[in-house]
């Protein structure tokens, strides 16, 4: 789930409860084969087209909202199953286009769910991974009882008489952009659409302004030494130098030496990277391992040279690095893999 999706779900849930409308919380509880969203994905739905979040690529949400709201008026929770069978008896029920099968837990929306969503959102804002446990107990009459634990580093223990889903909230992904030129704006937009925490820094106060970057999480106008000390660095932090100044990059590089980072690099061609390294080594001692991790040029080779295209290439390379992936086409991996079940395919 993305950060904005979680807040949208909270906002809709509060409106539904305040209006006395019947709403549902739907959770992707189990799956076999390929699925569009990961287990634990959630959706809040009310009457009509009032939905937030999602449990599929968009093919199931309307059905779950409509059918689920009817079911939870008779019982507090139910389990809906979906697969790719085109010959299913229920012609009103949508089929999955990915070829897999899933189960979706649907519950009547309550104030306790809003608290759970708030805990889920707060967990997304942390720099430490946490997990919540969702137990579904099936009574003798078939009724479902759902129990959830709060998010923590140590999840609840699954009950022996229950089916269990673990909601995992990973470490927040942080993107730090050193430079506040116009070409930074499309990279900010892509990163925020991915739910990343975005920090923009520039030593020139006229560039690092809220008028130019109204939606970023953190905006710093200060000298590089002071600015770096104000930034939270974690193992899921990516740093991109986009100041368009070799002198600035030379000053910045030694400041990053002891910082935990998953990715860091500078905009510009390969020879520019060497200029930055040579300049930094003239005044600082930098390890070989640190310099090997320093990327330049940054971004995947997509062949698009517009600011938006360059931003896409950078964000794609960062995403691959964060997930420890090769950034190869999924079609190539599918053809060459002897274990296709290990590949996550979307569709």
Descriptive report:
Mean pLDDT is 90; it is low at 338-347. It is elongated and about 75 Å long. Helix 1 (3-19) packs antiparallel against helix 3, helix 4 (184-193) crosses helix 9 and helix 6 packs across helix 7 (270-281). The protein is α/β, with parallel strands linked by helices. It contains ten helices and 14 strands. The protein folds into two domains: 3-169, no CATH class; 174-322, NAD(P)-binding Rossmann-like Domain (Rossmann fold), CATH 3.40.50.720. A six-stranded parallel β-sheet has the order 11-10-9-12-13-14. A five-stranded antiparallel β-sheet has the order 3-2-1-5-4.
Please describe the structure with a list of short key phrases separated by commas or semicolons.
single chain, alpha/beta, Rossmann fold, five-stranded antiparallel β-sheet, 10 helices, 31% helix, elongated
Number of domains: 2
Compute the number of strand runs. Answer: 14
- Helix count, per DSSP? 10
Basic shape = elongated
Uncertain runs? 338-347
Following the backbone from N to C, one meets helices and strands in this order, namely HEEEHEEHEEEEHEEHEHEHHEHH
Class inferred from helices and paired strands? alpha/beta
Straight-line distance between termini: 17 Å
Question: In short, what is this structure?
Answer:
By secondary structure, this protein is of the alpha/beta class.
SSE blueprint and pairings:
Blueprint: H1 3-19, E1 24-32, E2 42-45, E3 51-53, H2 61-71, E4 77-82, E5 101-108, H3 111-124, E6 130-138, E7 144-148, E8 162-169, E9 174-178, H4 184-193, E10 197-202, E11 218-221, H5 224-229, E12 237-241, H6 246-252, E13 263-266, H7 270-281, H8 288-293, E14 294-295, H9 307-322, H10 330-336
Parallel strand pairs: 9-10, 9-12, 10-11, 12-13, 13-14
Antiparallel strand pairs: 1-2, 1-5, 2-3, 4-5, 6-7, 6-8
Helix pairs in contact: 1-3, 4-9, 6-7
């Amino acid at each position: 789930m993305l950060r904005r999706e979680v807040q949208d779900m909270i906002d809709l849930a509060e409106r539904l409860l305040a209006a006395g409308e019947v709403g549902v919380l739907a959770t992707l509880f189990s799956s076999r084969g390929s699925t569009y969203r990961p287990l634990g994905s959630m959706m809040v739905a009310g009457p009509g087209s009032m939905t937030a979040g999602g449990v599929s690529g968009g093919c199931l949400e309307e059905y779950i909202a409509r059918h689920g709201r009817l079911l939870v008026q008779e019982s507090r929770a139910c389990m809906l199953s979906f697969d790719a069978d085109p010959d299913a008896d229920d012609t009103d029920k949508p089929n999955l286009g990915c070829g897999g099968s899933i189960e979706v837990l649907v519950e009547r929306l309550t104030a306790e769910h809003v608290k759970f969503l708030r805990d889920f959102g707060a967990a997304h804002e942390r720099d430490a991974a946490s997990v919540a446990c969702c137990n579904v107990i099936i009574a003798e009459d078939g009724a479902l009882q759902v129990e959830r634990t709060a998010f923590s580093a140590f999840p609840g223990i699954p009950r022996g008489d229950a089916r269990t889903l673990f909601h995992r909230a990973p470490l927040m992904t942080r993107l730090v952009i050193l430079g506040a030129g116009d070409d930074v704006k499309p990279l900010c937009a892509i990163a925020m659409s991915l739910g990343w925490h975005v920090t923009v820094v520039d030593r020139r106060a006229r560039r690092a302004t809220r008028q130019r970057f109204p939606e970023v999480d953190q905006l710093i106008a200060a000298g590089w030494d002071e600015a770096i000390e104000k930034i939270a660095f974690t193992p899921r932090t990516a740093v991109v130098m986009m100041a368009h100044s070799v002198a600035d990059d030379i000053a910045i590089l030694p400041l990053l030496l002891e910082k935990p980072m998953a990715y860091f690099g500078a905009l510009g061609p390969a020879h520019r990277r060497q200029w930055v390294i040579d300049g930094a080594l003239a005044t600082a001692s930098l390890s070989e391992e640190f310099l090997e991790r320093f990327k330049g040029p940054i971004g995947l080779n997509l062949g698009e040279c517009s600011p938006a295209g360059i931003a896409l290439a950078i964000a794609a390379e960062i995403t691959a690095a964060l997930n420890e992936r090769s950034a190869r086409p999924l079609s190539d991996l599918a053809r060459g893999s002897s274990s296709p079940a290990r590949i996550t395919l979307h569709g």
